[in-house]
């Protein structure tokens, strides 16, 4: 499928150029841009203390998603979004996702992870208990923003 606006604008805006195909854009070019973003993020996060967090939500088509992010010296960095629509929404599933995120945070971005924060739901609370058993050094917290919703 061609995007009519892109194929019309690109040659007139950049004479003599060839519009890359979707395969090239979503392959090599996207991979290069991800690498640039990760390198830039690592410059700001390596060997610094950080807090990881995750939360579940539903997108516009009602897919169940879990998003993760880190906060390093007051700067948030978005990480991944995991579609959990087709798998059980349990504490063990969430723990598996969180462990993968923690590994990436520490290895890819060089963050010294000290805290993990989640919402206050039942599965998240159980996941936090399991997380502390697995990593006794980490501090686990309920999200205060979720706590405020209980009082409003």
User: Overall pLDDT, averaged?
Assistant: 87
The proportion of residues forming helix, as a percent range, comes to: 40-55%
CATH architecture designation of the domain at 46-151: 2-Layer Sandwich
CATH fold-level topology of the domain at 46-151: Nucleotidyltransferase, domain 5
CATH class of the domain at 46-151: Alpha Beta
How many alpha or pi helices? 5
Report the major sheet: 5 strands, mixed
How far apart are the termini? 48 Å
Looking at CATH, the homologous superfamily of the domain at 46-151 is ATPase, nucleotide binding domain
- Poorly predicted ranges (pLDDT <50, ≥5 residues)? none
- Which oligomeric state applies? single chain
Instruction: Tell me the radius of gyration.
Output: 20 Å
Series of H and E elements:
HHEEEHEHEH
How would you sum up this structure, described in words?
The chain is 49% helix and 26% strand. The protein has five helices and five strands; from the N terminus they run ααβββαβαβα. The chain has helices at residues 4-13, 22-45, 91-109, 122-134, 144-151, and strands spanning 49-58, 64-72, 75-83, 112-118, 139-142. The chain has a five-stranded mixed sheet. A hairpin with a 2-residue loop joins strand 2 (64-72) and strand 3 (75-83). Helix 3 crosses helix 4. The longest helix is centred in the N-terminal third of the chain and has 24 residues, at 22-45.
């Amino acid at each position: 499928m061609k995007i009519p606006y892109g194929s019309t604008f690109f040659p007139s805006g950049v004479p003599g150029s060839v519009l890359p195909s979707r395969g090239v854009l979503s392959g090599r070019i996207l991979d290069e841009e991800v690498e640039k973003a990760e390198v830039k993020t690592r410059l700001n996060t390596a060997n610094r203390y950080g807090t990881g967090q995750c939360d579940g939500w539903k997108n516009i088509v009602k897919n169940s998603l879990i998003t993760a992010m880190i906060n390093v010296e007051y700067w948030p960095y978005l990480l991944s979004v995991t579609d959990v629509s087709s798998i059980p929404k349990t504490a063990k599933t969430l723990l598996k996702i969180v462990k993968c995120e923690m590994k990436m945070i520490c290895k890819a971005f060089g963050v010294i992870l000290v805290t993990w924060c989640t919402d206050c739901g039942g599965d998240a609370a159980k996941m936090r208990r399991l997380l502390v058993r697995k990593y006794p050094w980490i501090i686990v917290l309920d999200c205060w923003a979720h706590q405020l919703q209980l009082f409003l």
